[in-house]
Design a protein that fits this description.
Elements (H helix, E strand, L loop, with lengths): L1 H11 L20 H8 L11 H4 L3 H16 L2 E7 L2 E5 L2 H7 L8 H15 L1 E8 L5 E6 L6 E6 L2 E6 L6 E2 L3 E5 L10 H4 L1 H19 L6 E4 L6 H15 L17 E4 L4 H21 L14 H31 L2 H6 L2 E5 L2 H4 L3 H13 L5 H7 L12 E2 L4 E2 L3 H24 L1
Antiparallel strand pairs: 1-2, 1-11, 3-4, 3-8, 5-6, 6-7, 9-10, 12-13
Length: 431
């Protein structure tokens, strides 16, 4: 019980600031979060530090991480038991923990958002499993990323040394969700994009300085004659004093003399280059996070038809990868050996809601499913959050929509009636 009290005590403080969690010594073995942040990714080739805090300044990255994490957090989680050819959704205590409330201070959507965010940013997320004396799971406590976690691999088992917890935990006591890695620990996705992110951060900084200093040329004055340096400087100074407005809200009318003309410039070449660099950075974020560019508001080449298709690819190639990792880790750590070997239980995040098309497409899909006997009318109504009706649980197939369970009887009767009809026709013909 001592170890459980220690773990729970550590878990209760995971949402506090770094200043409240400096109970362990910060060093090379157990560095605190701020030290890991500083050295985690180091200096990119652009000369700009790239770490979890700095990369959040890239709006495309932050938007992409939020999209993945918040989408996963919104998905229904099911604990499914297979019995023969039936799939039963169990509402057990362990399901309630993982699908509704993993601990006393957090709901499931917040928990899964944290899991996804930590996996993307750090490559790993660790949650301690709290069990009672009967080995029944009571709570799942996420460990804050500012706490250091050492993964020790020994005798074909993993052990975890967590700052703030004196005992070393066995692998059965920790849910370890990870990104692609070496099987022991995952690798942060920030490492893959460090160079591109560094260039983007440097470009954003240059862009801010560029516009802050008023380097964006709005237009040029052309004089029919060649001006001396003194005259040109005086003209520039006078023009700036009369017409320059830092707030940009005063539309003044310029009076031009001596045959001068004013020509506007649509965009400065330097600014255009900056914008192109930033756009390339957004595409790199799209590649690393495996997101369709339109989800990061890069709409070049996007049409209504291919956007719907790309949305399906987001579920298939992006979310499914993360979800299968999470499902397998829960299968491994939350089921008993007997349950695992029976192969009757599995965890499943339900993505059906994300795969739904527009109304017309959904109705066509339901029609095909009902006509083929795959779904009942009430099952289709349930997918649309509609109440069932009496008789709506029967399955139908084609042949004038006969009930599936009466098909043989109807077919036999039709065959008999056809034979009797032919016999009667033959008898009448003979007479």
């Amino acid at each position: 019980m001592k170890i459980q009290k220690t773990i729970i005590s550590a878990g209760r403080t995971i949402l506090r600031s770094v200043g409240d969690t400096v109970s362990s010594i910060s060093g090379l073995i157990t560095p605190e979060g701020w030290l890991k942040d500083y050295f985690m990714m180091g200096i990119a080739s652009s000369g700009v530090p790239v770490n979890e805090k700095s990369i959040n300044q890239i709006t495309a990255w932050t938007s992409g991480v939020r999209l993945i994490a918040e989408t996963i957090g919104s998905l229904p989680l099911q604990n499914i038991r297979t019995s023969g050819d039936r799939h039963i959704k169990e509402k057990s205590d362990i399901w309630f923990l993982m699908a509704r409330k993993p601990n006393s201070f957090m709901t499931s959507n917040i928990f899964w958002e944290l899991v996804a965010k930590y996996c993307i940013h750090r490559g790993n997320h660790f949650s301690v499993i709290i069990r009672n004396n009967d080995y029944k799971v009571q709570e799942v406590i996420p460990i804050h990323e500012d706490r250091s976690v050492d993964v020790i691999f020994s005798n074909n088992r993993k052990y975890y040394r967590i700052s703030g917890i004196s005992e070393i935990l066995d692998q059965d006591q920790v849910l370890h969700f990870m990104a692609l890695g070496d099987g022991i620990k995952g690798i942060s996705l920030i490492e893959y994009i460090a160079t591109s992110a560094g260039i983007t951060l440097a470009s954003q900084k240059n862009e801010a300085t560029f516009f802050k200093n008023g380097s964006q040329l709005q237009g040029v004055l052309e004089h029919p004659k060649q001006l001396k340096k003194e005259s040109a400087n005086r003209l520039r100074k006078d023009w700036h004093q009369i017409y320059h407005n830092p707030e940009g809200s005063d539309n003044r009318v310029a009076i031009l003399e001596e045959g001068m003309t004013y020509k506007t410039i649509s965009i400065d070449p330097a600014a255009a280059k900056l914008l192109d660099t930033l756009k390339k950075g957004n595409i790199d974020v799209s590649r690393i996070l495996r997101l369709p560019p339109y989800m990061l508001m890069e709409m070049d080449g996007a049409t209504y038809s291919n956007i719907e298709h790309q949305g399906l690819e987001f579920v298939k190639y992006t979310l499914t990868t993360w979800l299968s990792r999470f499902e397998r880790e829960m299968w491994d750590k939350l089921y008993t050996e007997k349950e695992k070997r029976s192969d009757e239980l599995k965890w499943k995040f339900n993505v059906e809601g994300l795969l739904r098309g527009d109304f017309k497409t959904r109705m066509e899909g339901y029609r095909v499913a009902i006509n083929a006997g795959l779904k009942s009318q009430n099952e289709c109504r349930a997918l649309e959050d509609m109440d069932p009706f009496e008789g709506g649980d029967r399955r139908w197939i084609q042949m004038n929509m006969m009930p599936l369970d009466k098909a043989d009887q109807i077919l036999n009767r039709s065959t008999i009636e056809e034979l009797l009809k032919k016999a009667q026709e033959n008898e009448e013909a003979n007479n």
